[in-house]
Design a protein that fits this description.
Layout (H helix, E strand, L loop, with lengths): L2 E3 L21 H11 L4 E7 L2 E6 H17 L8 E5 L4 H11 L4 E5 L5 H11 L3 E4 L4 H8 L7 E4 L9 E3 H13 L4 H4 L7 E6 L9 E5 H14 L7 E4 L6 H14 L2 E4 L6 H8 L3 E4 L1 H17 L2 H18 L4 H4 L1 H6 L6 E4 L6 H9 L3 E7 L6 E4 L12 E2 L4 E4 L4 E5 L6 E2 L3 H7 E2 L2 E10 L5 E6 L4 E2 L5 E2 L1 H8 L5 E9 L9 E8 L1 H10 L6 H15 L11 E4 L15 H4 L1
Parallel strand pairs: 2-12, 4-5, 4-6, 6-7, 7-8, 11-12, 11-13, 13-14, 14-15, 27-28
Antiparallel strand pairs: 1-18, 2-3, 9-10, 10-20, 15-16, 16-17, 18-19, 19-22, 21-22, 22-23, 24-25, 26-27
Helix pairs in contact: 1-2, 1-9, 2-3, 2-6, 8-9
Length: 580
């Protein structure tokens, strides 16, 4: 038997009407409507020389128009050209992407952390004709150019002037202005349809097999409208952009959705300055991944503990009592000093990429900040399910989006279909056939749907550990328990050592200590943490954290690793590097 959900019904508990969402057919339609509606609002802002520099929707429209005409002058043609982009989050990245999207040119965003060989393979497979990159990537790109005859032009975001056959971004726009002055405006003359290809996103998954997911304009447009119907995001919101824009999650929901809503996007300087950037921009919303939220909340806990946990717990109890009996939410008032540290406006955090600890989700909400978790894949543009503001389960991935149908296969795999599902993998019919079956996207994730329609994720199908007795062990479940320890920043659980009789089978874990936490504790005691002490503490912590698990799930042996494990762009450990 398979479990099935046709999207939430009004019979499910906690379901309420969808929020209003304007109809759009494609990304060009989105961009034109937003720039027409909000010309004087700030669309993007970036920090340079300790000053935040704003770009209005009208200014963004003009820059995109110029860049689009510049790309056309270099020979990129609608539906017959590919633009690659690599670099940190910044206005030039956004302008380049929108210039391509609004003129039916396929965009290939590239992970800024990939190695040279990986970048080469993406450029080769995609056949990119133009690449827009930052100064940091120029040495790699120039070296690869000799091997890529189809790569006709390179544009440097950071260059002040064009040099040595490398075009500066300002000169790209100048070419566009010259073309417009000659009476040719490719931006205004272009048409885009829902079926046109928007992007090819090469996934950097935990399995190590990079494939190019083809997303159409319709895939993304539908996903944006669905997300807005399910989550309360507003025109007055100010997003802090933290996750890399090349990733589907940030690109669709932290970038395009924000523009669709008429919101403002501020580009964070780096992960260490998130709190300062939140305060400086008075941001109201931020997207992130579990590793980020865990670290963020852990610092908040340490700050509150230093001031007395009894005060914090008393305030939480007072807030809960007031909500229950008077229906007043006084949490922002009670924790006003904490909110002031983040600018006083932060109201909603949205998590994706992997399951977040329910304790962290509940913790943020108890402090007066809405926290919602969602679930999706690059192949689904990306959201499949998300918790809603007034209908949520902290342990759940959420409710299927209005246009998404989800069912659970006999083996527990989550299957999904809807207008947001990718066209297929670029030039990879075998992988496409394996992933898209009879109109259903095979997610590779295992899960179930509860009686109220909420989707829960158990873990990756390929990561499941089967014990000699035939029991299924989901490593993500064990890892979630271990990661609740403040002493541990990362861990990876796997099965090891089983012979034919199964006698040597054991659950093991690679554990990375939180050295900042260890150092704070030891320095306070007048010393420094040494490896022997760290290993003793971690052995004890893992044993205690596994105490809530069934005996067959408990970790029997740990390996302490002092260096971070290699991760994907959504901060998931590349499991295949450590368990093969």
């Amino acid at each position: 038997m398979t479990q099935k959900s046709n999207g939430p019904s009004t019979e499910n508990k906690g379901i309420y009407p969808a929020y209003p969402a304007d109809i759009i057919s494609d990304v060009r339609d989105l961009f034109i409507k937003s720039t027409d509606k909000y010309p004087d609002k700030i669309a993007l802002q970036y920090k340079r020389a300790d000053c935040w520099n704003p770009i209005t929707y009208l200014q963004l429209r003009n820059e995109v128009e110029q860049a689009a005409c510049g790309l056309a002058s270099l020979g990129l043609k609608p539906r017959n050209g590919t633009l690659a982009i690599v670099g940190d989050n910044r206005p030039e990245w956004a302008v380049g992407y929108l210039a391509a999207a609004c003129t039916a040119i396929v965009c290939v965003p590239i992970d800024k952390d990939l190695k040279e060989l990986e970048v080469y393979n993406i450029l080769r497979v995609s056949g990119a004709r133009i690449l827009i990159g930052d100064d940091k990537h120029m040495p790699i790109i120039l070296d690869l150019r000799k091997k890529l005859p189809e790569l006709a032009h390179i544009c440097n975001m950071d260059a002040v002037h064009s040099k040595d056959d490398i075009l500066s971004f300002s000169d790209l726009k100048r070419l566009g202005r010259d073309r417009m002055a000659a009476g040719i405006n490719d931006f205004l003359e272009s048409t885009v349809s829902a079926g046109d290809r928007l992007s090819i996103l090469f996934t950097s998954g935990t399995t190590g097999n990079s494939k190019g997911a083809i997303l159409t304009h319709g895939n993304v447009a539908c996903n944006i409208m669905d997300a807005v119907k399910w989550v309360d995001l507003r025109a007055e919101d100010r997003f802090l952009s933290v996750l890399p824009m090349h990733h589907s999650y940030e690109c669709t929901d932290g970038f395009l959705l924000a523009l669709y809503r008429g919101a403002t996007i501020s580009y964070a300087e780096n992960l260490r300055r998130i709190a300062e950037n939140l305060a400086e921009t008075r941001s109201t919303a931020m997207l992130g991944v579990p590793l980020l939220w865990h670290a963020f909340y852990r610092k908040i806990e340490l700050t509150m503990a230093a001031k007395g946990l009894w005060k914090v717990n008393a305030a939480k109890k007072a807030a809960a009592f007031t909500e229950k009996y008077f229906r007043w939410n006084i949490r922002r008032f009670l924790f006003a000093k904490l909110h002031e540290k983040f600018g006083g406006c932060l109201r909603i955090l949205i998590s994706g990429g992997a399951a977040v600890d329910p304790v962290v989700a509940r913790g943020f909400r108890e402090l007066g900040i809405e926290f919602l978790q969602g679930y999706g894949l690059t192949e689904s543009a990306p959201i499949l399910a998300v918790n809603r503001n007034k209908a949520f389960r902290d342990a759940a991935a959420g409710l299927p989006l209005p246009s998404v149908e989800i069912r659970i296969a006999d083996d527990g795999e989550i299957l999904a279909r809807g207008p947001n599902i990718m066209e297929g993998y670029y030039n990879n019919p075998e992988a496409t056939k394996e992933t898209l079956q009879d109109g259903w996207l095979c997610t590779g994730d295992l899960g179930y749907i509860d009686s109220d329609g909420f989707l829960y994720i158990r873990g990756r199908k390929k990561s499941v550990i089967v014990s000699p007795s035939g029991k299924n062990i989901y490593p993500e479940e064990v890892e979630a328990e271990i990661l609740r320890s403040p002493y541990i920043s990362e861990c990876l659980v796997y099965g090891c050592g089983a012979d034919d009789s199964g006698q040597d089978f054991a659950i093991e874990a690679i554990v990375v200590p939180d050295m900042e936490y260890f150092s704070d504790l030891e320095v306070g005691r007048g010393g420094r943490p040494d490896r022997e002490h760290i290993e003793q503490v971690l052995q004890k912590e893992v044993k205690e954290r596994c105490g809530n698990l069934a005996a067959y799930k408990k970790v029997r042996k740990i390996k302490v690793r002092l260096e971070e494990m290699e991760k994907t762009t959504t901060k998931k450990v590349k499991r295949y590097l450590y368990t093969s």
